[in-house]
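Think of the structure tokens as a kind of shorthand, similar to the way a musician reads notation: each symbol stands for something richer, in this case the local conformation of the backbone. In the example below we present two proteins back to back. Begin with the first one, reading the sequence and then the tokens, and try to describe in your own words what changes along the chain.
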Amino acid sequence: MPDTIFACSSGMPPAAIAVIRISGPQAGDALVALGGRLPVERRAGLTVLRDGAGAELDRALVLWFPGTRTATGEDLAEIHCHGGRAVIAALEQALGALPGLRRAEPGEFTRRAFLNGRMDLAEAEGLGDLLSAETEMQRQAAVAMAGGALSVVVKGWRERVLMLSAQVEAVLDFGDEDDVGALPASFASTLAMFHVELCEWLSRPRAEALREGYRVVIAGPPNAGKSTLFNALVEDDAAIITPLAGTTRDILMRPVALGGVPFQFLDTAGLRDDGADVVESIGIERAREVMARADLVLWLGPEGEGPQGAWEIESRIDAAVRMAKSAPRHRLSGKTGEGVDALRRDLIDTARLAMPKPGQVALNARQHGLLSEAASALGAIRPDGDLLLTAEDLRAARSAFDRLLGGAGTEDMLDALFGRFCIGK
């Protein structure tokens, strides 16, 4: 019999209301022990809760959800109590004193939902993203994933693989009979369209872009106005600004949301070949490394000397002496703010094109890797090739779809996934 677990699921106290969730075979017994009775199923009831000695703990709303039609797939109870720290601590102490009950581990409620078939792995990943969503775009993508949008598609793909496999197996098993000769004429075209569809999914913007933000690196030589622009974009005095060359010696990163789009802005050490000390040289090397990994570089250095694809920015337009450019994408002053709003709007429009569309399912690294396996297996099939090899490639594609939804997996992977969740979820 599994343990019965409990935890506060409503966040850190104090608050007006706290929700303590109990899940497992003894959830009902726990309510009886604290409240003296079980409330009517799926209806909130006001109950006086007492500890083992009969002392009143709180007056709370209590809900009872028996059976498998619950969030975790097992008996579930909720206590909606006052949200003070002392109240929550007293109730948790009383629950912990009951036989067979223990505090939940991080993500254990959701893990039980997965193990009991209440959600698949893709939906669980979407729920994890929803809990950590900080921008509207992140929320919309996570809602789609947690609601099963990807799961429905993958289950459809799995059915199509099964149909193709059935056609191959029919020829292998009954190819010498009169009514079964060769693969249907539609087999090759169906397979080709299937492969194209998977490749289209693989080419979509990834979930990491939403989760981590559009990565913008501000780069150029010393005293080009990089830190001033960085502070203007993040709207904070995050970077130290002085007229001395080499003030910025390491990477300074700040995540922000602009227009509902997540960004990572990175300020870097000024790039120069001569005059840098040992510490500044390390900062310059790190600057070159983050430039190579950037989604976009704002180049404040000499025109044409930035990395390929960088935006030419003419900065410090308020200064009497500045580095003029013939065709910059933007002219601006981080100090006065002139031109910064136009740059910000341009960044938002550009980042939106690189992000999944609102509500569109976005694959994470694990899902992308498994879908790549399935696409590779289907792409390896030759309609006139060995049918045994074709059957094996179709089996490999089906296996990838199963693992994507959690039909097969390792404990290490599950531990890593559900470890992202907070206690109480």
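Once you have a description of the first chain, move to the second and do the same.
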Amino acid sequence: MRAPRAWLACLLLLPTAACQGGAPAPDEPSHPGLPERSGPPAGMDESLRDAALELVETREQALVDGDRDAFLATIDPSAKEFARTQARWWDNLARLPATDMSLELGDEGVMTRVHGEGDLQLPVDFTMRLDGYDKHAVTQPLIYTFVGDEEEVRLASDRNLQNDALTGWLPAPWDVTAITVEESDGVLGVFDDETKDEAAELQDAIVAARDAIEPLVPPWSGRVVAYDISDVDAIDKMSSMSIDRTAGIAFPVMARPGGKKVAAHRFAVNPVHTDGGEWQGILFRHELVHVALGSSDNGSPRWLSEGVADYVAYSAVYAVHQRRRGLAQQLGSMAPRNLPTGRDFYQGRSRLNYALAHLACDYLASTRGDDVLWDLMNSFRRRGAPFPADVEARVRAELGMSTKEIVAEALAWARSA
């Protein structure tokens, strides 16, 4: 399923399934660069603009130097709430392996499409990279609102709702709440005040889930950032299902909103569904399969990407005869039918769609070997995202049978266990 603003959401549907992240296009050049500093638009007070840009440079230097006091001194004293959240944001970043931080003037053409308060507004791009986890630095377009004049200018805000809508900005945990960070063995866990008491336990569970799937998926770095915070607005916006039915979501982090270059794949969980036990392990393993595959399943029909994630999540722990019996019981007397391809996968009888997709992938891997799944994914990726009508033709070309025939054989296989 493809979520709004070019995020391809990866959803885990209770009680059996999960979902997956974005479908980026081929990589952009490795160093696309930031916009060049432009001249002031007609009618703008150039002296005020120059003073504002000097303030931006002061903030950037404070970031580079790790000077909290200098950074916060750039804020308008009357903007008390902004000062509070900026102090929290600074402290959050200090807990992260943040590097390559910069503040640069953005594309001033965007100012024709936004408006706000203050004496001056300018687009400013904030860039940073999570060292060891992000392949590329991530740039977030902001709108800085300044108050004052060329003699003394201060910052009153860095957000603009119109700009957020234009860029499709979704907040990271460090943007919305105080965070606690756990890091162990290539896993960076981000928690908040409501989840930090279980942070160590959850961190261990994520590491265990990562270790469990590694032998079962194509080679990958094994390094991942995971979010477990009580503010689930970002998950809700990326999900095609209601938040109460969404246990987790894996997603790509683009190097720049609207761009094509992926900086990292991460996952977030809904803390309502992380109470521990068997379900927690399945959830973490499923989402981590999506993270491990990254863009490898771009173009794959939903039944394949979600079915593979469930197949790996369950086969890491359960023997094949256990999986067969469990799926046979869950699917009952269901008759063979075509496998759902697109957004319809997450609608209607979505729980059964997950089980059916799991069964199809488990049957193919168990009877033909795991490579049949990776080869089928690679085929879809090479040829580009198909129209639903094309899926059956491609599956038949690769496997010699339709998805309905796969389901018929898989049901018989499961019921004979």
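Compare your description with these statements about the second chain. The mean pLDDT is 88.
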